[in-house]
Specification:
The complex is a heterodimer. Chain A is 83% helix and 0% strand. Chain A starts with a helix and ends with a helix. Chain B is mainly α. Chain B contains six helices and no strands. In chain B, helix 1 packs antiparallel against helix 6 and helix 2 crosses helix 5. Chain B is globular, with a radius of gyration of 21 Å. About 4% of the residues of chain B have low confidence. The chains are: A mainly alpha, B mainly alpha. Chains A and B meet through helix 6, helix 7, helix 8 and helix 9 of A and helix 4 and helix 5 of B.
């Protein structure tokens, strides 16, 4: 089977599983909803203030929620030794990784699409800058989170208390990406400065880490 | 090997003592260092602060290189070196993070300046290598070294992003704080270099010790495992 065929097969299987069980998306949605509600109780900002802090709040909420989905990525494959079966099969490792990362990207994007209107309503948001730029920022930022997250979820598979291990690995490394997403979003919401630099930073971050993940995933998969 | 260790220990002790003296002695004392004009005596923490930072960076660089060497050659010694340098690098980085605020408090009037790129990028660096050590500690697989080496490479790749993003982030919001001017008195340069040499030598000594300890520990583990296998088969 070709690279693309394996990717498509794995991705299709994951989406079908998720469509039928809705495990990850339900947990993520409810979790993100709780974060939004708790934030809105904890801070009661005016429209002007909320424009400044909303970028940070949104991305922190998505980051936490994404961890919920990422933790389930590989755990599913451990049952019935699916991962072992994959390892002994002649299929290369990278399509598997790519399929998992794309799957997570889709799940987290769906979550973002559903939660953003809530955020806008709760925080009375209105973009003063070019609002369409939020789309590439969301895409690049989400990819930055899920590509590393998928990889580190694989790393933390064979650790004690792996649910807590993933954020411990993912958060320190995501600091630059998070800075990029938050500042780009804030720049557009307040309309005070251009978000171009941050978008460029996110592109560079995505390229470097996607490459590193693809180069090293084989090593990690064999190391289990 | 044993003699080399003793010599290194003596050299380290002498260098540390001399560096300490030079860092604290005013210009009127023999071989003293001038006191900085605006900041006064407190500026002398600079000699420990900066030397620790440079030493930590050297240790992290060694960690990165030995992680790559391990991934390519699967040489156990490279893995032990990576572990030892990461542990020690975190310690030196912690010294930087503690001496920074102690210096900042009297000079800037605040303990921690969220707008200072150096403090923040050092903190991010420290967090990355702490999570490296946590990963090693929590890993249950026999392939811990491989996973740790992969993680070390990711951590090293992140460093340029950390510096770059935080640097840009802050220059957009200029702060009144300037860490150090561009010019440094040559006598101060000598003092900071001597202290750096002392710290590097200390780092070498401790890494060496840690390396031997880890090596011995692994041998003991292996021997114990073999022993229990033999008992089991009887």
């Amino acid at each position: 089977m070709s690279f693309l065929a394996i990717t498509r097969a794995t991705l299709g299987k994951d989406i079908r599983l998720e469509w039928r069980s809705k495990d990850a998306i339900n947990a993520m949605l409810f979790f993100a909803l709780l974060v939004v509600v708790i934030f809105s109780f904890a801070f009661d900002p005016t429209a002007e203030e909320s424009r400044r802090i909303a970028g940070g709040l949104i991305w922190v909420a998505f980051l936490f929620a994404a961890v919920v989905a990422l933790n389930q990525t590989w755990a599913r494959e451990l049952r019935n030794q699916v991962l072992d079966a994959y390892r002994v099969s002649p299929a290369p490792a990278n399509p598997l990784f790519l399929a998992k990362a794309i799957g997570n990207f889709i799940f987290v994007s769906v979550l973002e699409g559903l939660m953003t209107p809530l955020f806008i309503a709760f925080y009375k948001l209105r973009a003063l800058g070019p609002g369409w730029e939020l789309l590439p920022i969301a895409g690049l930022g989400t990819w930055a989170l899920v590509v590393n997250g998928t990889f580190f979820a694989a790393i933390s598979l064979r650790t004690r208390s792996r649910e807590i291990m993933l954020p411990l690995l993912l958060f320190p490394l995501s600091i630059p990406a998070l800075l990029g997403m938050v500042n780009a979003t804030t720049a557009i919401l307040t309309g005070e400065e251009s978000a171009r630099f941050w978008i460029a930073l996110l592109v560079a971050y995505d390229v470097v880490f996607t490459t590193a993940c693809l180069l090293l995933f084989d090593t990690v998969l064999e190391a289990e | 090997m044993k003699r080399g260790f003793t010599i290194l220990a003596i050299v380290t002790g002498l260098l540390l003592a001399f560096g300490f003296y030079k860092a604290l002695a005013p210009l009127s004392w023999p071989l003293g260092t001038p006191t900085e004009q605006t900041m006064g005596y407190v500026q002398r923490i600079f000699y420990y602060h900066v030397s620790s930072a440079w030493t930590a960076l050297v240790l992290f660089a060694i960690n990165f290189v030995s992680s790559i060497v391990f991934l390519v050659k699967r040489n156990e010694k490279a893995d032990i070196l990576a572990l030892a340098t990461a542990e020690l690098g975190v310690v030196f980085c912690a010294v930087v993070l503690v001496t920074g605020p102690i210096w900042a408090r009297p000079v800037w009037g605040i303990w921690w300046d969220p707008a200072d790129i150096r403090l923040n990028s050092t903190l991010a660096l420290w967090l990355i290598y702490v999570s490296y050590l946590v990963l090693r500690r929590f890993s249950t697989s026999s392939k811990t070294p491989v996973i740790a080496a992969v993680w070390a490479i990711f951590g090293a790749l992140d460093v340029p992003f950390v510096f770059f993003s935080i640097w840009f982030f802050r220059t957009q919001h200029p702060s009144p704080v300037i860490a150090q001017g561009g010019y440094l008195d040559p006598r101060m340069w000598i003092t900071v270099l001597i202290n750096w040499a002392a710290f590097l030598s200390l780092a070498w000594l401790v890494t060496w010790t840690r390396y031997r300890l880890e090596f011995a520990q692994r041998k003991v583990h292996e021997a114990e495992a073999l022993e229990s296998l033999r008992e089991g088969s009887q």
